Amino acid sequence: MKHTNLISKWSAGLAVMTVMLTFPVFAVAGTADKAPNIIVILTDDQGWGDLSISGNTVLDTPNIDRLAREGARFDRFYVSAVCSPTRAEFLTGRHHARSGVYSTSEGGERVNPEEKMIGEFFREAGYRTAAFGKWHSGMQYPYHPNARGFEEFYGFCSGHWGDYFSPMLEHNGQMVTGNGFVIDDFTERAMDFIEESQDEPFFVYLPYNTPHSPMQVPDRWLKKFKDLELPPDHPPAPGDKLDHARAAFAMCENIDWNVGRIMDKLDALEIADNTIVIYFSDNGPNGARWNGGMRGRKGSTDEGGVRSPFSLRWPAKVKAGTEVTQLSTAMDLLPTLAEVSGVKLSGGKPIDGMSFAPLLWGDDDDWPERTIVNHWKTRTSVRNAQYRLDYEGNLYDMLADPGQTMAINEEQPQVAAELAQVVADFRAEMLVNYGPEFDDRPFVVGHPDEKITQVPARDGKGHGNIVRSNRWPNDSFLTNWTSLDDSITWDCEVGETGTYTVELFYTCPPADVGSTVELSFKGDALEAKIVEAHDPPLRGMEHDRFVRGESYVKDFKRVTLGEIHLEAGKGTLALKALDMPGSQVMDFRLMLLSRVE
Fold first, then answer.
1. Residues 50, 196: one domain?
2. Hey, CA dihedral for 300, 302, 306, 310, is it positive or negative?
């Protein structure tokens, strides 16, 4: 994707700057004060209103509430309207439109490799770094979390996952089977890493993937909400979606329990005092749930779609009960954490966020007026301390009218014009080369720095009769392969010439076993026969608490096809059938290409 590095007029409100840390609070090593440990917990599709501390009366989140009460609670913290842009902004400190992120799948979720990420900064500074959960910023190197500064990764790289109970996951590039409910599993892995790293500073990124659909949660958590009727102050669940809300509340309470487990681990290790724990969500709620009367939810650039709960606890430095009312954003986390940890942001690009460290100490004398731009797809909205201009150009006084019910353009024409100019400046600079039509980044196979490359159905194109198992590609498979004219292709770039072992994840009923398939790239080819039947049923529905929109999954069989020689360079990786004795070839989920050393 082509993009610009210019610093524009609109960004002055975002305090764009190259961060120079002249007064670090800590050094990572060699001083009496140990650098703080850092844990960042990011939830998925949990709205501002999905916490009891926000005023929700149907659920209890005592551990998350405790983080806010024992540290700092931010009243106006903003993220993006959907998952991958928020992650990009947190990880880079820059607006997602700068980083190449324009979608949530099919490559549009990838953060440009020249963007330096928070894991890289902290690892260079001597921190141990790990991420456990949903990455959603690119799968193959150089986009993989192990390539972006996280020495340890356990989870999945796609935007959503098809089953939350012992699913296929990955651990540092190796495909593995999870252990129980994924949120509990990610938390266990994080706690193990924390215990292993307790004697040195660590940075743990814990991006949970709930309450994102599919709506799956253990019985223990659903029991409380199984027969819940929403009280009058909650919006009615449209149609038959009450079960969706019930499941979401149960998932939020499960998250809270896991947050409590992390806090208990810190106490047991006696490192809680010097550990920064941050909690926020990536966008508004994924359903019509109570959200403080704000307009908008996930996908919306209105207040309810982009306002997130945010808490930061650091007992050694941040006074319990600190309330921060100034505007802040996910882009602020990188410069803030770098400043308070003494980590230099050298080698990175100019940061759009600004350190809110002074606000943690109660020093807001020099805090500037800010203008925050929220953008998704064709919708751009602007927020300053008092007003929001929505994507249709309607101006609202957010102090007097937090629900955005009455536009005041006629009463405040100058404010409306000023914020409209911010939108125009943003679009003129940031969106000129933004979107799929400008994305020429290939999927990289055989990157020199990584032995194993995942080549999933998600990134492939089915030709002929082949269709995707669901219109949402993230955890889908390719099916209806019923003709020799059908094929699956990937536009990619081989990073290093070599011989690669090819493994396939597939299903095939006994009546159709025996097809010969060919994998080819730039004149080199591998032929192999599907000799073993494997026909498991679709699964996932047995755990669903609400009918999903995403694909169901299968237990795909893993088989080695053989070896293929691949020459470095761009081309099309193609998988087709040479003969088909039955009615179909197979259902395809994933290939692994491993360079032979």
1. yes
2. negative
Q: Show the tokens assigned to 364.
A: 């807001």
φ, ψ of residue 152 to 5 degrees: the values are -125, 130
Report whether 94 contacts 349 (CB < 8 A).
yes
Domain-embedded: residue 166: yes
Residues 455 and 333 in one domain: no
β-pair partners for 374:
381
- Residue 235 and residue 288 in contact, taking contact as beta carbons nearer than 8 Å: yes
Q: Which CATH number is 176's domain given?
A: 3.40.720.10
Q: How many domains does the chain have?
A: 2
Residues 450 and 342 placed together within one structural domain of the fold: no
**Position 15 pLDDT exceeds 70:** no
Q: Which domain holds residue 36?
A: 22-364
Confidence of residue 568 (pLDDT cuts 50, 70, 90): very high
318-321: which pairs have CB atoms within 8 A and are 24 or more residues apart? 318/71, 318/72, 318/360, 318/361, 319/72, 319/362, 320/69, 320/70, 320/71, 321/69
Distance between CA atoms of residues 183 and 179, nearest Å: 10
Q: What is the pLDDT of residue 30?
A: 35
Cα 247 to Cα 237: distance, rounded to the nearest angstrom: 12
Q: Are residues 463 and 360 in the same domain?
A: no
pLDDT tens digits for range 524-550: 999 999 999 999 999 999 999 999 999
Handedness of CA 550, 551, 556, 558 (dihedral sign): negative
- Report how far residue 565's alpha carbon sits from residue 595's, in angstroms, rounded to the nearest whole number: 9
Instruction: Report the helix count and the strand count for the chain, using DSSP H and E.
Output: 10, 26
Residues 352, 490: one domain? no
Q: Looking at the domain assignment, is residue 29 inside a domain?
A: yes
- How far apart CA 193 and CA 316 sit, in angstroms, is 22
Which residues fall within 8 angstroms of residue 418, CB to CB, at 6 or more apart?
Answer: none
Instruction: Specify whether the CB–CB gap between 103 and 306 falls below 8 A.
Output: no
CA distance linking residue 106 with residue 104, whole number of Å = 7
Whether 356 and 462 map to the same domain: the answer is: no
Whether residues 261 and 351 share a domain: the answer is yes
Of 320, 338, 364, the one marking the end of a domain is 364
Q: Binning pLDDT at 50, 70 and 90, where does residue 9 land?
A: very low
Q: Is residue 378 part of a domain?
A: no
Structure tokens at 191: 């706690």
Q: Indicate the residue among 364, 382, 413 that finishes a domain.
A: 364
By three-state DSSP, how is residue 536 classified?
A: coil
- Cα torsion at 120, 125, 129, 135 (round to 10°)? -20
Count Cβ atoms below 10 Å from residue 394 Cβ, excluding itself: 15
What CATH number does the domain containing 561 carry? Answer: 2.60.120.260
CA–CA gap between residue 331 and residue 122 (Å, rounded): 16
Instruction: Please tell me whether the overall predicted TM-score, pTM, comes out greater than 0.85 for this model.
Output: yes
Same domain, residue pair 467 and 359 = no
Please state the φ and ψ torsions of residue 122, each to the nearest 5 degrees. Answer: -75, -35
| Tokens read off for 388 | 């929001």
d(CA 97, CA 74): 25
Reported as a pLDDT band with limits 50, 70 and 90, residue 19 is: very low
* 45 located within any domain: yes
Q: Which residue type is seen at 534?
A: H
Among 235, 288, 174, smallest CA distance to 590 is for 174
